[in-house]
Design brief:
Elements (H helix, E strand, L loop, with lengths): L10 H16 L4 H8 L3 H9 L6 H11 L33 H9 L5 H14 L9
Pfam family, one: HTH_3
Organism: Brevundimonas mediterranea
InterPro entries: Cro/C1-type_HTH, Lambda_DNA-bd_dom_sf
């Protein structure tokens, strides 16, 4: 049965869509290039990336092959806030911050910097956001 259009996208669909977008941007692909590779329109890729439409298992498989990642890649970082025995409540993945080309590139380049430079950049970003530079990290 189809979902009602008024319903918000499921958190897993949004997460998978964001991971598709992050990997696409990381590879320097356009939505059109990804769409052609998996046989859908670029508008459909937009809907996948927003989580508005679910990615079918077959399309997820085709995307994984095209982008040369394993299928679990698309689910990495998603944590449903349902702790097991002895586990503390953990916050779920933050879906509110849409990745951009710049944020994906920052995330890709940062690990290549020495730890001291990573901390300097982190402090600068926190200062720019008004969060202070001395938060633990």
């Amino acid at each position: 049965m189809a979902r009602e259009k008024l319903e918000e996208p499921h958190p897993v669909d949004r997460h998978v869509g964001r991971r598709v977008q992050e990997k696409r941007l990381d590879l320097g692909l356009t939505q059109t290039a990804l769409a052609r590779a998996v046989g859908v329109s670029f508008q459909q890729v937009q809907k996948y990336e927003k989580g508005a439409n679910r990615v079918s298992a077959s399309k997820l498989f085709e995307m994984a092959e095209f982008m040369k990642v394993d299928i679990p890649f698309f689910f990495q970082g998603f944590h449903d806030a349902q702790p097991g025995v002895g586990e503390e409540e953990a916050p779920g993945f933050d879906h509110e911050h849409k990745p951009t080309k710049h944020s994906v590139e920052i995330a890709r380049l940062a690990p290549r910097l020495p730890a001291r430079n990573q901390k300097l950049i982190l402090d600068m970003m926190r200062e720019m956001l008004g969060e202070g530079a001395d938060k633990p990290g």
